[in-house]
Design a protein that fits this description.
147 residues; 6 strands; alpha/beta; Universal stress protein; Rossmann-like_a/b/a_fold; Rossmann fold; six-stranded mixed sheet; 31% helix; single chain
Length: 147
């Protein structure tokens, strides 16, 4: 079974990420692990985010088998959280879900390129900008490398 690490924080329930989860789960049997590098906000629960991703992986009818779990990390450095997860788990690829470049601290810190150095294919998912398209070149809300 394919295993994808999803790195997200405030974007864990955005439609573009949920659509990507659905697409990947429909394409092949995939286990997903949601990593939230900074799980400190008091109004946020890992269990809620995992359930949302599980619903997306189950498909529109909710009948597709799903394998979704989560890791909450109190690290202030998202790269170190990803590196630790990759070192302790067995993943085939990584999806980084982040805010658009105008507001994303992760993109300003070049997180996707740093994560690529870990040796796994990386896809970056961003919500559409206010103009209806992503700043990344692979279409609305996505960018892929390492394939």
């Amino acid at each position: 079974m394919h295993h994808t690490l999803i790195v997200a924080n405030r974007t864990a329930a955005t439609p573009v990420l949920l659509q990507e989860i659905d697409r990947r789960a429909e394409f092949r049997r995939t286990a997903f692990t949601l990593l939230v590098p900074d799980a400190t906000p008091s109004n946020w629960r890992l269990e809620d985010a995992v359930n949302t991703l599980r619903d997306a992986a189950a498909g529109i009818n909710g009948t597709r088998p799903t394998w979704v779990d989560g890791i909450a990390n109190a690290s202030e450095d998202p790269f170190e959280a990803v590196k630790s997860a990759v070192e302790t788990g067995e993943y085939d690829d990584i999806v980084v879900s982040t805010l658009p470049s105008r507001t994303s601290v992760w993109l300003k810190r070049d997180l996707p390129r740093r994560v690529e150095a870990l040796g796994l294919p990386v896809a970056v998912i961003t919500p559409a900008t206010s103009h209806g398209f992503s700043l990344f070149a692979k279409g609305p809300g996505s960018y892929e490398s390492g394939r």
